[in-house]
Amino acid sequence: MSPETHAVAHEPSHHHHPAALAHHFEDLGQQSEAATLGMWVFLVTEVLFFGGLFLAYTIYRGWYPDAFAVSSHELDIVLGTTNTIVLITSSLTMAMAVHSAQLGHRRKLMMFLSLTMLLGLAFLGIKGVEYYHKFVEHHIPGPTFQFEEKYVREAQIFFSLYFVMTGLHALHMIIGLGIMIWMFIWSWNGTITREYSNPIEVSGLYWHFVDIVWIFLFPLLYLVGRHLHS
Amino acid sequence: MPSRTALLPPRHYLNDGYGIKSWLLTRDHKRIALLYLAGVTFFFFVGGAFAVLIRLELATPAGDLVSDETYNKLFTMHGVMMVFFFLIPAIPAVLGNFLIPIMIGAKDLAFPKLNLASWYIYMIGAAFTLWAVVQGGLDTGWTFYTPFSTIASTTNVIPAALGIFVTGFSSILTGLNFIVTIHRMRAPGLTWFRLPLFIWSHYATALIMVLGTPVLAITIVLVAADRLFRFGIFDPAVGGDPVLFQHLFWFYSHPAVYIMVLPAMGVVSELVAAFCRKQVFGYTFVAFASLGIAILGFLVWGHHMFVAGQSVYAAMIFSILSFLVAIPSAVKVFNWTATMYKGSISWDTPMLYAIGFIGLFTIGGLTGLFLASVGLDVHVTDTYFIVAHFHYIMVGGTIMGYLGGLHYWWPKISGRLYNERLARISAVIIFLGFNLTFFPQFVLGYLGMPRRYHAYPPEFQVLNVLSSAGASILGVGYLIPMLYLMWSLRYGKVAGSNPWGAVGLEWNTTSPPPTQNFLETPIVTWDAYQYPTTVEGHVA
Q1: How would you class A227 by CB atoms within 10 Å of its CB: exposed for 0-12, middle for 13-18, buried for 19 or more?
Q2: What is the domain extent for residue A117?
Q3: How does the average pLDDT of chain B come out, rounded?
Q4: Beta pairing partners, B450
Q5: Is A151 near chain B, with CB under 8 Å?
Q6: Chain A partners of B212 at a C-beta cutoff of 8 Å?
Q7: What is the 3-state secondary structure (H, E, C) of B497-540?
């Protein structure tokens, strides 16, 4: 009565079984597709995660355009622009790393991963300098917040959003650096091969996503409305 | 067909390795499902203990058992424990985890290590929240409304919120794992429209988990920034907006209701087909109704804020959209009843739960329409009408579905049969106890009794005593299955691979299944629920 008689033998044992293939997948192709789809789904969750912040930014910017323009003017545009360039360059080196992995060029792969990490560290260093300036200027929101009297309340909202948005972005950068160290080790010890370059591709997706978040943060926080109060 | 001389299979996932390490480091989705079963059962009884205290307090009009402050903590911790640590993970993380790979003919979920990590993340989050409870609890309500939660409350908001934040990632990763598994791991020939409806509803659930939960996470981050560092994003004193919190919170927490009830609907589809021995009527409609509920569920959050100073136009839009959710929900109810029509119905325990679900979910859903209409909602906002409504959905819906599924697949999970007579009795006790507990609350709410107070005017006492009496019956009803299910683990009759005579890939492997689920990868050439149309002898 049940259709179990239709089940047909499908033994995986006669397949070529690469070392990187996990037991529950049929082949490396299926495994790579699963990992790539998994990362894309994860990035969708990240869009929603940052989405809450972009929503809050949009609402408060609409309510307090002047305070936001004045506050935006307080940010260091030179450092912000430098960081944007640093980060876009790191996306280039990441893309080169993926390319090298797919071609199986191990030394180039390790070099580009190292460059990506260096640029990521440079970004975080510059961000740290900016944070330090804000700390000195008493622009950290909370009881010690100081700003020109007219905008002191709403400017605190701007800086709250600035610190939460850039802070969470920086946290994602730090996690990204951790992933890069992991990928560097895997490249060094030969886990990554031309047949099994998928971990580098998936890590690259994450790295590019974190860059794209910054591509939105930079104009919203540093640029929009700034010329109104120069 | 159950055989009187059936033996357990020599090798299965339960005897594939012994000892604590073989469980705590397992990557087998079936064992991880059992780890979750232990977790959610524990938190169900923790949350239940708070409910006992609430109903004891409300047995008399005077606030005499606990202080008002303690009472605030009791309903808060009842809600937090039940919502985040029981209702949301219960069906997906236990039954979904166990069944999804088997139902689609896969060896495991796509990411087994991530699956184990999800359980640990869940337990770590639960530990933070339990710590908040042990430290004296919190009193914000499970909704954490600002600015009370960020400025006013002096209780343990941060550890509790941290626990919910952490547990959210468990939910996200489970949803991610399900989506990838359903896309990439189906057995050869198992096309989308051959999938069991359990899979469709879990796919829809996973979408909500993945799209909604991150918004809750960022909301908790902002609450923590406000509370710890006085950032002021939700603080009106610096121009922040407390209602923005409500928007962000309900953007997750309304869809979260569908995280709870959609998997139960998936269970009910399986049960109705198996115990009416029929193909589910309107399979495609039921499948798409799951996706419809998931999508519409994201567009109705404003109906929680009809009295929160929302514009009339926004309220009208949210009201209309909320009414629309009734369409896919009704599609499901009508199709289940149409499946039962002229079916060969057997009254085994899982079917009793399924029928209970259909009735109670219908009441919960119809009262939801009352609440979707703005005028009526203003009248019953923050009364016991709301409390009764969402308990009909969450307890009458989700827990009925969960228990029905647990009974239906218990022989598959454990390899043994529970005591059917005791199980039927307790299903009836639960149904009666549930209605006695919560139906009077509809009346109380309509008469104007507000929620979240530990004292009330004497004229409400009769209905409250009924409700408290029902709660004690309900509590007994929940304890009995605990006992006979545990008893069956050792003493139950051996079930055999297909005790219900049901179709579906999970019944084509041994009970309990082998670690790799199938000895040979199945090839599927048939649609779901291919029951013979003629009535066959069915052993109950």
Answers
A1: exposed
A2: 50-229
A3: 95
A4: B383
A5: no
A6: 48
A7: CCCCCCCCHHHHCCCCCCCCCCCCCCCCCCCCCCCCCCCCCCCC
Query: Would you call B211 and A44 a contact, using CB atoms and an 8 Å cutoff?
Result: yes
Angle between helices B242-276 and B312-340 (to 10 degrees): 10
Does B136 contact chain A (CB < 8 Å)? no
Cβ contact, residue pair A60, B239, below 8 Å = yes
Cβ distance A1 to B501 less than 8 Å, yes or no, reads yes
| Average pLDDT by stretches of 10, chain A with 230 residues | 42 62 92 96 97 97 94 94 98 98 96 98 98 95 90 94 97 98 97 95 98 97 79
ipTM: 0.93
Supply B283's token pair: 């399979």
The reported pLDDT for the residue numbered A16 is 60
Q: Please give the C-alpha separations between residue A127 and each of A115, A135, A170, in angstroms, as whole numbers.
A: 18, 12, 8
Of B214, B237, B521, the CB nearest to A48: B214
A188 in contact with B, Cβ within 8 Å: no
Question: How much is the pLDDT for B5?
Answer: 55
**Residues of A with CB below 8 A from B102's CB?**
none
Residue B152 near residue B100, CB atoms below 8 Å = no
Establish if A210 belongs to a structural domain: yes
Domain with residue A90: its CATH number is 1.20.120.80
Asked whether residue A29 is assigned to any structural domain, the reply reads no
Contacts of A163 in chain B (CB under 8 A): 225, 231
The domain total for chain A is 1
Of B49-53, B141-145, B246-250, B534-538, the one with minimum mean pLDDT is B534-538
**Which residue type, as a one-letter code, is found at position B89?**
P
B191 touches chain A (CB under 8 A): no
Is residue A64 situated within a structural domain? yes
User: How near does any CA of chain A get to the CA of B160, in Å?
Assistant: 20
Q: Is residue A36 assigned to a domain?
A: no
Structural domains of chain B sorted by starting position, each given as residue range(s) with its CATH number in brackets? 26-508 (1.20.210.10)
Could B238 and A157 be called an inter-chain contact, meaning their C-beta atoms sit closer than 8 Å? yes
pTM: 0.94
